[in-house]
Amino acid sequence: MLEHLHWLDVLIMTAGITVTYVIFGITGFGTALIAGSLLAFFIPVDRIVPMLALLDCSAAVANVARDRHSAVLSEVKRLVPLMILGSLVGAAVLLYSDPQKLLVYLAAFVIAYSLYALSGIKPSAEFTPRAVYPFGFIGGIFSALFGSGGFIYAIYLSGRLKDNSAIRVTQSTIIGFSTLTRIVIFLLAGVYTDLSLLLLTLILLPGMLIGVYIGRRITLALSREHFLKIVNVIVLLSGLSLLVKALA
């Protein structure tokens, strides 16, 4: 894979990864939306998800290691079992049904919610703990189906938590669990026997670390209002991306 890449290609990918992980450093999700489209110009599509899984997991560890005391473990404990259950259902749907039919409904929900949240019609009401059931379960389903469940968890956490760092680090913890599951699956499937994939991941690692650091610094300077606006813009872009994929 690397032998087909020019040094300028690697430079462009590194710049893209850095920008991608600035967003991840702020919100704790969004890498598939930004990096996936860019990387597809340079490397095979079937190598993008395994590589992003390694980078996402590393970024989540970097976020959590620095600010682990900000993580709200009670929310992690609520979300993870439902995420796992939803992932099992999502895997079954993937095997026995047509997931594309579901994609347009998810996209419509995400776009509608994000537009509502950005409209400023009224302040967002705080979710009750029971809201974890639909958000955790549905997030798990769509993580398994499309590798895109992070924004579902982000909607839930932004409706539950008041502190920017708490939302970001708790989101990173959830993403860490999710990507670790994918890494184990890819490992068992022999995907990581491709040494060129691992080497490219290593080359892009500094860009990821720089991006996460910059994103964290930006988050610390943001008010909750501005932080949630950024989160909801990324959620909106995620929904539009899903809609394009559904209608393609």
From TrEMBL:
Keywords: Cell membrane, Membrane, Transmembrane, Transmembrane helix, Transport. Its main location: membrane. GO terms for cellular component: plasma membrane. InterPro entries: TM_pro_TauE-like, TSUP. It is found in: Cell membrane. The keyword Transmembrane applies. It is a multi-pass membrane protein. The keyword Transmembrane helix applies. The chain crosses the membrane at residues 12-41, 78-96, 103-121, 133-157, 169-189, 195-215, 227-247. Belongs to the 4-toluene sulfonate uptake permease (TSUP) (TC 2.A.102) family. This is Probable membrane transporter protein. The lineage of its organism: Bacteria, Pseudomonadati, Pseudomonadota, Gammaproteobacteria, Enterobacterales.
